[in-house]
User: Fold this.
Amino acid sequence: MKIEVISKYPEDKKRSVPILFIHGAFAGAWCWEEYFLPYFADHGYESHALSLRGHGKSEGHASVWMNSVPDYIEDVCQVVRELGTSPILIGHSMGGWIVQKLMESFERPAGVLLAPIPADGLLSVAMRMLWLYPSFCQKMYLINMLPRSAWEYVASFQEMRDLFFSKAVSPETVKKYVPLFQHESYKAMWDMSGSKYSPQPRKVKTPLLVLGAENDVIISPDSVKSTARSYNTEARIFPNMGHAMMLDKDWQAVADQILDWLDKKVESGKSELKEESK
Assistant:
């Protein structure tokens, strides 16, 4: 399977480990490309973002509806093998759920969850959205069955903006990214709603940073805090921010929080090991 990977490399001093970014549902590697990839590269991290099969420029669009959670996990493992080293994993929404699953079996240098689907699955998220936004949930289900060209006739630009972005994001920015959203796998959604593939936090030994957004209508701050508690840590919730944290007007605050945490959890640990080995 040919998997798209977008990469940015540091020009100066290189950090000890690379970062691999994993996108959420309906998205692709493009969501990391404008801000996060160059910013983390500028701070010394070899930075990579993949598009899961059927997303972005990866193969498999014709069968995207039948992709499973194991398929997506294999995509990430394939890219990790190609990198040749164990990276820091940063996942958004569905990508955050995939990171949780990967941490069960393989200890990584670190993991970061941005507005992640909670460890107990997608069902609680779906039920909350059905209760609060019944009309739009029906539209989202419908547009996933329609050709991409028909989406604009079912869900308005304003509805898409309210779902993914905060009011601080300019209309011009939203218009740039909304056309890039695409179909998502029903099977993967079903997999994340049941107990068969649910992440098991007790198996995770890797340090995790859990971040959320105050105005996220998909993954609520309470859900993010619950996920953090599952891993015996505390969540950081960013004010006046929507679900697409990496594309928000204040994206840099999120990136700086991650960089600061990585300096403490990963880079400082590497320095201590070097000192001990002398």
